Amino acid sequence: MKIESNAFRLIEPGVFKKDTLTHDFEEKDIIVKPTKASVCHADLRYYTGNRRPEARAKKLPMALFHEGIGIVEDSKHPDFQQGDKVVIVPNIPSHLRKGTYPTTSFQDNYDENAVFMGSGFDGICQDRMVVSGDNVVKVPTDLDEDVALIAELCSVSLFP
Fold it and tell me: In 3D, which of 132, 141, 158 has the Cα closest to residue 31?
């Protein structure tokens, strides 16, 4: 099954363009409607043109933002159902990507075939996303959304 989303992709510093993206919706996937995203310094570097021209040429156009939360609209994953709030994990290791990639014994953060949302791979700046249910974290119902929003930031800043 195919799902369409409206993405706002940075095409050059300071310029966004609305694009329609098509995503495959397969087993263990969920459809997430992003509800909040935070702007990281990395996003600002793309937006302001403070990335090397070679990096911009390689990575743009791209939907920005890798820190975000959303609501599950549909699920083919047993752990999630419509209405669940989730934190979107931006690092997508090869074993969760569509297609065939060589297996690796490295942890996900060292997987050379992984992609990272908002850094050469479309990020959260779209109205619907299809992600693996293994690549999100359910937000407890009593947790404030603004606290959930900083989960990704905390995961990279507070890890021992």
Answer: 132
Q: Are the C-beta atoms of 138 and 148 separated by less than 8 Å? A: no
In this structure, the chain runs to a length of 160
AA letter at 100: T
User: What phi and psi values does residue 151 have, to the nearest 5 degrees?
Assistant: -60, -45
pTM of the complete model:
0.89
The per-residue pLDDT string of the chain (160 residues; one tens digit each, 9 = 90 and over) reads 999 999 999 999 999 999 999 999 999 999 999 999 999 999 999 999 999 999 999 999 999 999 999 999 999 999 999 999 999 999 988 888 776 666 677 777 777 888 889 998 999 999 999 999 999 999 999 999 999 998 887 776 655 5
Which residue in the block uniquely carries the two structure tokens 């890798």? 66
Query: In the chain, how many domains are there?
Result: 1
Largest pairwise CA distance in the chain: 44
Domain that holds residue 62: 2-157
Q: Which two tokens stand for residue 136?
A: 């999100």
Q: Looking at residue 87, which CATH number applies to its domain?
A: 3.90.180.10
